[in-house]
Amino acid sequence: MLRILQWNICGLRGNINSLKEAVVKEEIDVVHLQETLTTDETTPKLQGFEHYTLPHSDERRGLTTLIKRSIPQELLEQPTPCGEGVEVLAIKIHRPPSIQHIQKPKVGAGSL
Predict the structure, then answer these.
(1) Which domains are present in the chain?
(2) How far is residue 20's CA from residue 28's CA, in Å, rounded to a whole number?
């Protein structure tokens, strides 16, 4: 069984210690973070995890997915566009289940 943590972190660098604590305490295998507000260069790393980042920019808030290195995985090419303002980071895990990390910031109830 995979243990997955999903967190709208609103700034990864300011919450890295809380993230590390949660990953260890809950024995997390896969982490999905939204609104990381980091770039490739400023994204903190977690030991024992592969890091995949869709960096923060003027148009997006940033996504990061972390997967334990012991789990076979590969970054997929950008999937078919999911709509304006939608951030997508797709990684294939070579054991069930496969996971896609998709976010559309500031979605109103009428937009769903």
Answers:
(1) 4-111 (3.60.10.10)
(2) 10
